[in-house]
Amino acid sequence: MLDTALYDRHGLGDACRKVLAGERLSLADGLALYRSPGPHLAGALAHHARTRRHGDVTHYVLNRHVNPTNICVNDCLFCAYRRREGQEGAYVLTVEDALAKLTAFGHLDEVHIVGGCHPSLGLDYYLELCRRVRQAYPDASIKALTAVEVAHLADLAGMDESEALTALRQAGVDMMPGGGAEVFSPRVRAKVCPAKISGERWLSVMGKAHRAGLATNATMLFGHMETLEERLEHFDALRRQQDETGGFKCFIPLPYLPGANPLGESASGPTAQDALKTTALARLMLDNFDHIKAYWVMLGVKLAMLCLSYGADDLDGTVVEERIGHDAGSQSAQELSVAELEAAIRSCGFTPKRRDGLFREATEASHA
Fold first, then answer.
1. What global pTM score does this model have?
2. 244 by DSSP, 3-state: which?
3. Which of 29, 33, 153, 219 is deepest in the core (most CB within 10 A)?
4. Strands 110-113 and 63-66
């Protein structure tokens, strides 16, 4: 039972009572929680909200990532993955090579396809890749292409994003990952990702995806140049979009990693306490999102496990060969087995539940 008197003493009584009543927090409530001492007051409220929604269940997925290309027209200062055409390390996978990376591992519940915005690699390539993946994995969720990639491909083809999204859905795509959101603040985007689509367009593409029958995730990159107020405005924009179109499945807070990118250590990244508090604030502010993910690839496994007691109900999955976060300096493993994921979840006092990308219960017995 939460001690409401404790929250009153810290000036958080109104926020506490709203959470207990299932009411929406204001931006002022969120800022007060962000400024509260340590992560634990916000964390206890977030754990209450998480438990009310999911009990002791923590989700995970048997999945594989494939990154078709690292060549990208955007020049984001926080990105260590991006290469220019002709630059050492630049690559484009053939459809066959991309498919081979996936089929080497047998059964999958989710396939995750995301990469750079190549200046000439068009929509037809991705449609062929998704059709081939759907043939190979008729029962898996195919999570493909961020809003940034969809907008880029639509621009290359001279079509509206809705047309591109419909074509992707017809090719077998079920949902979209949430990358490219970064922080919606125009001030921050002008400094760290000036060539990337605006936050408004990102939200517009996601709304069109929801209307086209595609579920999506959402993200926020935090711990670089943004203020607490800008983080809260980001949460508010997401929940207003969710009120309107209702297609977001999961939110993933992504800590900025300062390795090997132009922004570098001028923005050192969030502390562990900040990561815990941001996970908690995500659960509390995004009251119309079902799921909050602790992305172990970028948080590290130990901190991601702790986030499960600060509002997160999902630990992502087996992954294998993730390149974007690791190029930026992530020291986490490239892969976790199902047994390792389940052991991590149980050691935190939760019950593991295997899912697909759409958070439907997975029933296949494979334990990769």
1. 0.94
2. helix
3. 33
4. parallel
Looking up tokens 């066959």 gives 96
Q: How far apart are CA 266 and CA 124, in angstroms?
A: 40
Q: Which class for 38: exposed (0-12), middle (13-18), buried (19 or more C-beta within 10 A)?
A: exposed
Strands 57-61 and 314-317, by their bridges, are parallel
b/e map of 324-359 (b: 16 or more CB within 10 Å)?
A: bbbbbebebbebbebeebbebbeebebebbbbbbeb
Among 258, 259, 235, 232, smallest CA distance to 248 is for 235
Q: Is 156 helix (H, G, I), strand (E, B) or coil?
A: helix
**Rounded to an integer, what distance in angstroms lies between the CA atom of residue 310 and that of residue 44?**
7
Q: What does R_g of the chain's alpha carbons equal in angstroms? A: 20
* Sequence letter at residue 191: K
Calpha distance 269→300 (Å, rounded): 14
Binning the chain into helix, strand and coil, the percentages to the nearest 5 are 45, 15, 40
Inter-residue contact 305 to 348 (CB < 8 Å): yes
Return all residues near 292 (Cβ < 8 A) that are at least 6 apart: 50, 250, 251, 252, 253, 279, 282, 283, 286, 311, 312, 313, 314
Q: How many CB atoms lie within 10 A of CB 244?
A: 12
Token pair for residue 181? 């959101």
Cα-based distances in Å from 269 to 109, 223, 263, 296: 32, 5, 11, 16
| The two structure tokens encoding residue 170 | 């017809």
CA dihedral defined by 326, 87, 191, 247, rounded to 10 degrees? -60
